[in-house]
Amino acid sequence: MARVERSGLKVDGQLAGFVEDEALPGTGIAPAAFWDGFAGLLQEFAPQNRALLARREALQAQIDAWHVARRGKPHDHLAYRSFLGEIGYLLPEGPAFAIETANVDPEIARVPGPQLVVPITNARYALNAANARWGSLYDCLYGTDAMGSTPPAGGYDRGRGARVVARARVFLDEAFPIAGTSHADVRRYVVKDGALLVDDLPLVQPGKFAGYRGNPKAPDSVLLRNNGLHVELVFDRAHFIGSRDQALLADVQLESAMTAIMDCEDSVACVDAGDKVGAYRNWLGLMQGNLAEAFEKAGRQVERRLAADREYLDPNGSPFTLKGRALMWVRNVGHLMTNPAILLPDGSEVPEGLMDAMVTVAIALHDLKKTEGMRNSVLGSVYVVKPKMHGPEEVAFADAVMARVEAVLGLPANTVKLGIMDEERRTSVNLKECIRAAKGRVAFINTGFLDRTGDEIHTSMEAGAFSRKDFIKRKSWITAYENLNVDIGLECGLSGKAQIGKGMWAMPDLMAAMLDEKIAHPRAGANTAWVPSPTAATLHALHYHKVDVFAVQARLAKGGRRAQVDGILEIPLATFQGWTRAQVQREVENNAQGILGYVVRWIDQGVGCSKVPDVNDVGLMEDRATCRISAQHVANWLHHGVVSEGEVMAAMQKMAAVVDRQNAADPLYVPMAPGFQGAAFQAACELVFKGREQPSGYTEPLLHAWRLRVKAG
Questions:
Q1: Which residues belong to any copy of the Malate synthase G alpha-beta insertion domain (predicted)?
Q2: Can you give the pLDDT at residue 214?
């Protein structure tokens, strides 16, 4: 669409129309004031943005040169640490402090629980994530392998259903024990004199009774609370399960995803104004509360909308409500990318992160102006996750940008809360100072193995060949990284004020394994962790009933730091490189399959997040972070002669045919083999063969360029 001029900016007509006709009406912000304020923000901060990126490149060049000069010699850790301090990569740690963040909603500050991350461009997924605040434990146990096997084909299996009911009652006995009996033997739940009686027996901890619906003598549901999370027992004699249950218990519903990140970054493919408008329009619908999506399911039309709040009576019979939706963050783009949606007066593209900051916060005004009804933040805050920041100066920059956005939009200082993703090495080793740089608005920090490993490989590309990916996870640096993130968060006063998060469970079909393993996250002191689906959120919520995260945090805080920066600076190189050629081939092919399976949908269809089978046919959630680590890993092995270009190209072509076969049922899919000339295949190859040249090893520049080429025909 043709561009229009706004306050000296050349704005794509689609974006200008969306801002002026859809986003701003109802906010109290006039279009002229918006564009004038935005133009002033860009005039000040766009040059600073460029300078920060140049600083990244200068530091990387110095690190590369240091390793090249010492190639063939044993790694000198102390000299390396000293060098990083001399060039300003590793900064001295300042005095103790505590964050000053105020008006943080309880879902973030006081209630540990699962967190979803979803592409904002997919309205159905966004609505599913927002509505994942509540989930049926019965459905999640029945429909997954959580109990050790997947459900049989065909209709409802009564034997499996009975096992689900029994497993759910085991959970109830663990979280809400009854004095003198088991939930498995109960016939009647009643509310009497403000207390819950279960076959006339009290709960061991009566304070866990939170409320009910219906008649106290025969309630429609009973609301319980444990470690801040609610559980609703739903009774229905007409339900096909409740009618066969001695207590008429038809379902056990768990408060599940307490928060959800609506992602404008790693899980989307937004390369131009049209794409950005699609993302912003869905965020607008979420903030206004009117987003809807119609689709066909099981042969019938379904319309999905945001779930309403849930109404109850407290133990004494007074009405109250609980939110029906997860509290929503919006993840903006990082500092690196620009977007052609707006051209600056000098003709250059707008820094996309600055555009995201201005537009997403302006859209959130619709939520801030509400005083009742379907609200996101009841305490008047806007929650923005900022990814891929490198060190304290970049966090300080993000803090200053948000302060300017607040000023332009007439918001009180620190209305915008900031999430700092601890996923870049320069942030990890300076985390305390990163938090200090935005201490008035920090409400979230987290670890993310994939991006963090991608940056680890790129930063130390010249140091030598890295271990195989599975072995990188076992090296000491990752334990130090995970522990130090929690330790620093607690030192900086995040407990009870902000989220300390852990990364994604990437295998959405393996819920039994998730139940076995992901309890490690709350046990580590994290009060949130990422899950790949609403179902996974409900199952992961079980872990927060088993673990009192705030008790864990209190114990860890007394014990002091378990990890130090020196541990994080241990480079996970392959100390033993006696791999067989079969092992090398398998590693490269696994990386190639992940890259190709993700990139082909990104480039050809604009799909930013995909479930891609690995070489063992295990479906893995792939986004740009997983693509980054795979591409950098192969680029590292190429650079150090572990594999040749010919071997890598052979692997890419072999796995392209595999990916073609895996996508054969997709009518929109364009095969890569046998010609290997398509844009998607070429883009995937460039991510590997040009991997060392990419800024910080990011995939975005190449992916965006190729996607724009495809969109242009």
A1: 156-226
A2: 98
Contact in structure between 118 and 126 (CB atoms under 8 Å): yes
| Sequence-distant (≥ 6) Cβ neighbours of residue 457 within 8 angstroms | 466, 629, 632, 633, 635, 636, 697
Give me 193's structure tokens: 């004199």
Q: What's the pLDDT score for residue 610?
A: 87
Distance of CA 641 to the CA centre of its chain: 35
What per-residue confidence (pLDDT) applies to 156?
Answer: 94
Q: Does 426 count as an annotated binding residue?
A: no
Separation CA 284–CA 268 (nearest Å): 17
For 195, phi then psi, to 5°, come to -125, 155
Is 97 annotated in some ligand binding site? Answer: no
* pTM, full prediction: 0.98
Cα gap 89→72, rounded to integer Å = 24
What's the DSSP call for residue 642?
A: S
Rounded to the nearest 10 degrees, how much is the dihedral formed by the CA atoms of 386, 388, 394, 399? 0
Is 117 flagged in the annotation as binding? Answer: yes
Q: Establish whether 9 is an annotated binding residue.
A: no
Any catalytic annotation for residue 623?
yes
Contact 243, 341 (CB under 8 A): no
- The whole-number pLDDT of residue 296 equals 86
Let me know: does 424 contact 452? Beta carbons within 8 Å. yes
- For residue 441, the Cα-to-chain-centroid distance in whole angstroms is 19
Q: What is the mean pLDDT of each run of 10 residues along the chain (713 residues)?
A: 95 98 98 98 98 98 98 95 98 98 98 98 98 98 98 94 98 98 98 98 98 98 98 97 97 98 98 98 98 90 96 98 98 98 98 99 98 95 98 99 98 98 98 98 95 97 96 94 98 98 96 98 98 98 98 97 96 93 96 96 96 82 95 98 98 97 94 97 98 98 98 94
β partners of residue 292: 305
Q: Is residue 331 annotated as part of the catalytic site, yes or no?
A: yes
| Rounded Cα–Cα distance for residues 687 and 8 (Å) | 36
Determine which one of 623, 624, 628, 707 is catalytic: 623
24 has binding-site annotation: no
User: How far, rounded to the nearest angstrom, does the alpha carbon of residue 332 sit from its chain's CA centroid?
Assistant: 12
The one catalytic residue in 331, 426, 436, 601 is 331
Taking the C-alpha atoms of residue 454 and residue 691, their distance in angstroms, rounded to an integer, is: 11
289 marked ligand binding residue: no
User: 499-502 and 442-447 as β-strands: parallel, antiparallel, unpaired?
Assistant: parallel
Taken in order of first residue, the domains within the chain and their CATH numbers are 581-711 (1.20.1220.12)
CA of residue 194 relative to chain centroid, distance: 40
Per residue, the 3-state secondary structure of 140-173, as one string, reads HHHHCCCCCCCCCCCCCCHHHHHHHHHHHHHHHH
What's the token pair of residue 297? 């399911």
Short-list 360, 200, 162, CA closest to 276: 360
Known binder of ligand: residue 634? Answer: no
Rounded CA-CA distance 3/16 in Å is 9
User: Any binding-site annotation on 532?
Assistant: yes
Of 465, 439, 371, 533, the closest CA to residue 98 belongs to 439
Neighbouring CB atoms inside 10 A of 317's CB total 11
Q: Which two tokens stand for residue 119?
A: 């592409």
Helix (H) or strand (E) holding 320: strand 319-322
H or E segment at 131? none
Is 423 annotated as contributing to ligand binding? yes
Q: SS3 of 661, please?
A: helix
- At residue 497, the pLDDT reads 98
Closest listed residue to residue 327, CA positions, set 370, 280, 381: 381
Tokens 């063939």 appear where? 72
